[in-house]
Amino acid sequence: MPDSQNSRVAVYLDFDNIVISWYDRVHGRNSYGRDRQRIIETPEDPEIAERLSAATIDVGAIIDYAASFGTLVLTRAYADWSSPVNAVYRTQLVARAVDLVQLFPAAAYAKNGADIRLAVDAVEDMFRLPDLTHVVIVAGDSDYVPLAQRCRRLGRYVVGVGVAGSTAKSLAAACDEFEAYDSLPGVPRVARAAPREAGSRAPSRAAGSRAKTPVDDAPAEAAPKTRSSSGRGAKKSPAKDAAAAAGETPDFTPEGGSDAPAATPDGAVEAPTAAVVEASLIEALGAAPAPARRTNRRASSTTVAATAEEPGPAPVVDETPEDPQDVATRLLERALRLGHDKDDDAEWLHSSAVKTHMRRMDPSFSEKALGYRSFNDFVKARESIAELEETGHERLVRLRE
To answer: How far is CA 400 from the centre of its chain?
Structure first.
């Protein structure tokens, strides 16, 4: 591997790929595919907003890892930036000097062709910038195997970054070095999410489709069950089964009330509307009623227009600037972790190399601007996370465990 002091690095991010893969990693396999329609149509929905927030990508962790190989010459991210799930990253990507390449999908829910565009740009850069020494590919598709192989044949050191469990083994094998996004410093460890239960579906989805319930499995001659006036969900009990056998109509709401059908006067069973489900939940929780919102795609134009005029919840934006001292502390910790991870045998790192790495990750870093006479004083002030050793003319630093 070339010397990191003279290395020049190009970073290519298939952003849609990494965002979707991390979403599935946090919430369970194929979770993004199940939530895609709601993410596109109602991204401000509290449940969707919470799920997106829990699966937020730490872009800084990826870029800082790439900077540990040398000077970043170019960094490009390929995605459909008009999509709500990607648009929230534009500010922090621009702040890290990432070039945003806009890709529109050819059809609804189709791939945006990032793999082809990214591969073409990367190969062009190999010939246009012959001094490039490293290529970092942030993706997980096996489509990038030919690109990784071509870059290696052209004499570049290829580094891959992908989400564990969503990355093709062939891509990892085609790279000189591969790192899971989950293991990067600063990225929280997540346990594999359990599959979502049918009873936890959102009302907007239950209202538009017929869900299988205990009523569907009941014989045709059985008396239709009705929803109790309280609207509270309860499990079947032997007492209610006995009442049903005696010809009585017990008050019964199947478990997972949002998927339970209601009985009509003529005995037909139909799925409840989102408004009925929401009202039942509000009554069960003792909360004040809120205006129902219809999200059915087949709603009339009048309903859609009325819904569009309803003001959604305003996003909460914390404009309070972070303390520069805290930012610098996190930067030092990440640089030390990356330095130790890259060389397991190096217990101590040269302070000059650590400072150089920190300047690569954040060119605006300056210990003097923070009020310190030297970088060693800066490290000494953070003795809770770093340990400094001064032997002769050498200044060595390591992460304090």
So the answer is: 30
Cα within 13 Å of Cα(203), Cβ side: 19
How do the residues of the chain divide into helix, strand and coil, expressed in percent and rounded to 5?
40, 15, 45
**First and final CA of the chain: distance in angstroms?**
29
Q: Report which residue type is found at 340.
A: H
CA 312-25-192 angle, 5° bins? 115
Q: Which residue has the higher pLDDT, 238 or 69?
A: 69
**Displacement of CA 360 from its chain's centroid (Å):** 25
Q: Residue 124: its pLDDT value, please?
A: 95
Q: Sign of torsion, CA 351 357 358 359? A: positive
Tell how far CA 363 is from the center of its chain.
27
What is the structure's pLDDT at 155? 94
Q: Are 62 and 187 in contact (CB under 8 A)?
A: no
Residues 6+ apart with CB under 8 A from 328: 365, 367, 370, 378
Residue among 76, 135, 136, 143 nearest 103 (CA): 76
**Token digits of residue 331:** 């930067």
